[in-house]
Amino acid sequence: MVKLNKIYTRTGDAGTTGLVDGSRLPKHAPRMQAVGDVDEANSAIGLAIVAIGAAPEAGWLTTIQNDLFDLGADLATPIPEGEEEPWALRIVASQVERLEGQIDAMNADLASLDSFILPGGSAAAAAVHLARAVTRRAERSATAAAVEVALNPQALAYLNRLSDLLFVLARRLNGNGAGDVKWVPGASR
Fold first, then answer.
1. Domains of the chain with CATH codes
2. Which of 104, 139, 149, 165 has the fewest Cβ atoms within 10 angstroms?
């Protein structure tokens, strides 16, 4: 368990931040952008949990929030070249598979899509749509970082599945799609 006695350390005052292995990077490095965007996605999911209330889906999202802390640690832990690191906290295939199972279960009850939908409907669905959009940004940041440094492929897959899960969950929260707001191309011309 992590124990934090002091919140400020002053070690980042010069614009760098520490990675799990003790190395330091500029705070604006692509890896750190991805870590920050994952943190923002986690915060957006926290807001969605508040909007959802006591429904069972809030418990799913709380599990996902914990996964996102794991994912942030994963992104902040360099992958040593040619070395195994059994101590490193990494996203694993079973976490991605859990998301896929939840997506499949929810999607089975949804009305078929016959148009793109606008983010909205109920307050809970709108909050989940916002979390989905922030998660997509985190995915873009992580894939950009992966061009420069080795990242865990399961972490990238997790972000991709999470945005899909959040889309399907928003539709579920909109009465299984009945309350979706459909896009009408050119409607405001």
1. 27-76+90-177 (1.20.1200.10)
2. 104
